[in-house]
Amino acid sequence: MLKHIKHSGKWLLSHKDWTAHLTFAIGAVVLGLVATFMAVSSEWANHVFHSMVAYSPYLPFIISPLGLILVVWLTRKYFPGSEGSGIPQVMASLEMDHEKERGVLLSLRIAFGKVLLCVIGLLSGASIGREGPTVHVGAAIMFSLRRFVRFRIYDMERVLIIAGGGAGVAAAFNTPLAGIVFAIEELSRSFEVRTRGLMLTAVMVAAITAIAIIGDYTYFGSSSATIEIGQALVPILVCGIICGLLGGLFSLVLIHGSRWVAPYRNNKPFLIAGLCGLSIAIIGYYSGHVTYGTGYQEATSLVTGTSDMAHDYAYLKLLATVVSYLSGIPGGIFAPSLATGAGLGAHLAEWLTAYPYGVLVLLGMVGYFAGVVQAPITAFVIVMEMTDQHEMILPMMLTAFIATGISKSICVTPIYSTLADNFLPEHKKLHQ
Asked: What is the Cα–Cα distance from 391 to 224, expressed in whole angstroms?
C-alpha cells in the first residue's frame, strides 16, 4: 500500500507530467486567443459585407467573384492545404504515420492562411463558417508544441492533434462539453484513458480563454422552447427523417461534387472561383441578401423568435454553402449547416402548427446537422450548449440519432472522413 502511495506521489510530482500539462495549457491559451480573433474578425467581415450590400444590392456581383478569385489565388500560391473546412485535413493527419507528412497539413503557415483566407471569404459574401477552420488551426497550433517538450506518452502527436481539434470547437462555439464530445466521437474512435486529462486541459483552457475575452454567452442566444416527450413524437420523427434526408443529400452532393469539379478546379481554378462567386451573388440577391456569410444572425433570429425568414431560406442557404465549398476556398460548414437546419425547422413549423415554433427550429438544427456530420452526440450536445436549452435534451437526442440513421442510408460514409481521403496517400485511403 505504502509502495503504491509512494509511486502515485512520484507521478503527481513528475516534472515531465507537469510540463506536459503546462505545455497543453499554454497552447490552449494561444488557441483561445486565436479563436477569439477569428470570431471577432469574422463578425466584422460579415458586417462590412452587409454594409456594402446595403449601399448597393448589386455590389456582390462584383465583390463575390473577385473576392473568391483572390482567395483561390492566395490559397494555391501561398497556403496550399488550407482549402475547405479543415476538419478533413485534421482527420487525414491522424491516419498518417510520420511527422513530416502531418506537418504538410498542420503547419503554422497553413494556420495563419486559414484565418486570413476565411476572413477574406466572408468579406466576399461566401456562405462559410469559421468553426471548421478553427479546428484546423487548433490542431496545427497544438501539433507545433511537439518541438518544445518531450512527452512520455506513446503517439503523442495524435494526442496533440485531437486535443487541438476539440479545443478549437470549444473555443469557437463557447461549448466545452461539445469540444470534448467532438474530439472523441469525430476525431478519435478509440481514445486512451491516460490522454483524457491532457485533452480536457486543452479544451477547458481554450474555452476559458475565449470566455474571458468575449464573455460567457450562448452562441445562438437562449431558447425557452420546450415540449413534453410524450407530445414530441411527431416533431421528432418529421425533423429526424426530413432533416436527416436533406443532410445526407447535402453530404453526398459535396462529396461527389468535389470529385467532379476537381479536374476543372485544377485546370481553371480562377474561372471556377469566379463562377462560384457569381452564383453566390445570384443566390444572395434572390434570397433577399440573407444567404451570405456564416448564417449566425439568421439562425439567432430563428432560435430566439425575433424575426421570421422566408420559407425558402433553408434551401437557398444549403445551395449557397454547396457553391461556396466547391469553389475551393478555405471555410467551414458548421455554422451554415446549423443555420440551414434552423431554417428547415422554421419551414416545417408552418406545417406542424400544433407544436411550438421554437421546438421545431431546435429539432431542425439538430436533425440537419446530425445528418450532415453523422455524429449524433456532437450534434445534440453542441445545439444544447449553443442555445442554453437543457430541457429539450431527450427530443434532440432522439432526433439526432434518427437523422444520422437516415443520412447513413443515403451517404454511406461520413462526409469528413470521406473528404479526408483527398489528403491521404493512396495506400492510406480510408474508403476505397
From this structure: 9
